[in-house]
Amino acid sequence: MPHTPQYDFDFIVIGSGFGGSVSALRLTEKGYRVAVMEMGRRWTPENLPPTSWYLHRWFWEPAMALRGFFRMRYFRHVTILHGCAVGGGSITYACTMLRPPAKVWDNGSWVGLANWKSEMPQHYDTASRMLGVIENRILGPSDKLLKRVAETVGVGQTFYPTHVAIFEAPEGQPAGVTVPDPFFGGEGPDRTTCKGCGGCMMGCRHGAKNTLDVNYLYLAEKRGAQVFAETKVVDVRALDDIADGGNGYEVRTVNSIASFNRTPRRFTCRAVVFSASSLGTMELLFHLKDKGSLPHISDQLGRYVRTNSESLIGVRVPRSTDDLSKGVAIGSGVYIDEHTHIEAVRYPEGSNTMSMLSTILTGGHPGAGRVGLWLKNLCSSLLHHPWKTLRVWIPYRWASECVILLCMQALEGHIDMKWQRHIYWPFRKFLVSRGQRVPTFIPAANDFAQKFAQVAGGTAMSMLPEILFDVPGTAHCLGGAVIAGSPDRGVVDARHRVFGYKNMYVCDGSVVAANLGVNPSLTITALAERAMSFIPPAKETAWDDGAVAEQSAHRSK
Ligand SMILES: Cc1cc2nc3c(=O)[nH]c(=O)nc-3n(C[C@H](O)[C@H](O)[C@H](O)COP(=O)(O)OP(=O)(O)OC[C@H]3O[C@@H](n4cnc5c(N)ncnc54)[C@H](O)[C@@H]3O)c2cc1C
Ligand code: SF4
To answer: Ligand 1 site: residues with CB under 6 angstroms?
Structure first.
């Protein structure tokens, strides 16, 4: 064991999502004393909400008494959806686990810093094994419809069942059967086979979803990691005024739920891993740089934030005889062209709140013109098909009659985040987005939705906020503290060591330096596995990861 009894922990990991849970497990396995600070709550099948109408157990906005696990953050360029829980985004995510195309390693600031194409496959393999990734066997009516439409438009050969982190019964075996841990030789918890209820994004109440609290984090806690739930990190600074953190760090926290008496606490440690997600890590590091706690963080913080170029559209099939909510949350996908990927998404029966955000499909050009076009289309549609048009936003049976189409593009494009005061609230600084507008819809995907509606006998839909405010939504915010060769280009090096500090790392979506074009959690997990593989076992550590020395050598070249 490292001789650090004067410190509360060897490592403090901030955030318990994909990057944080991998870090916690691998560090405890290496013999370190690890604490995980997590702002969100702990969830079990008993306290998860049955449908999306239980807003207070779904949304996270503690100031408004909403104490769920899902959060929406609004910026000028994008609305970012993310998770907030013990287990991070894994509690609310849709379990799709895809490897990106190899070309992503040829773009962005990480190019040439490692032999990514030969190194990463082994880490993807480990991540897939730990998360129990399989090819989805539960194809619901929405998936079958997606296949039919893909065949109609000539891309049927690209249809694939998604790879998912779900415990599904073998072919021909019954669903809903509980068995002793099938993944970790009996070390993990009992698990129940998937019922195909489509509820993954509301949190799985059946014990079938391979969330982080039943694999990485579960094993980390079993090996001694301490998870502090409802604990928000508000400060990290170097101990003893040693500028590069060579003597360790102090980490200050508050209770994330209490409005008053927030029970501030102080912990000390030798090393810190920031794993608060792209948005969370950016926000925390900006705050700490600005207030002088971590002044040497690279000025590149907040640059190259990527949204995976996403667009959410859908189709409502009134009086559908098939229940389109059945299956797993994202059961299948197709590629409609080289760059554009569409997945069939669903919410569980009864989770109909999304109906209030849907309207008829609208293309055109972003801005006021699109709002005008939407109003024109809406009037015309109301005249010609009044019932079908109204039906788009009527909550009753919305989840059972809708297929949501999640479209993603692996095209280059990014925005930046800055730490600034708002004109309308100048008393403190906030994260604000800057840069070129992100497109709010993908024309080829809209055409596909039209075709889908024709084949299924339904009505194609757009998301109303995307039209009215010209702001796209994304559940896949990446970047902001990207991997790069020097602090002039990014925030961490290829081993995720923070430029300017010793024994400080970032392991989460913020390090990703290219648009992946697929759902990112498997890549975040694999990158974290790789980053942790460079940390020596506790009994061999000299508590100098070489980051500062390597950087000085780089500067003097
Ligand atoms: C509805 C939805 C569906 C999704 N579906 C998929 C999918 O199917 N496949 C896929 O690959 N991805 C999916 N995603 C995206 C996926 O959830 C994220 O990409 C992933 O969780 C990011 O991992 P991370 O390690 O960067 O951070 P996260 O998993 O987001 O974890 C970060 C954690 O840090 C905590 N935190 C933040 N700040 C602090 C602080 N100051 N102190 C303490 N704790 C803090 C947060 O509460 C959070 O729990 C989905 C996301 C959403 C919202
Ligand atoms: S489909 Fe239902 S049972 Fe299966 S993992 Fe998702 S929520 Fe759990």
So the answer is: 14-20, 37-40, 81-85, 88-89, 92-96, 201, 232-233, 275-278, 280, 284, 330, 475-476, 508-509, 519-521, 524
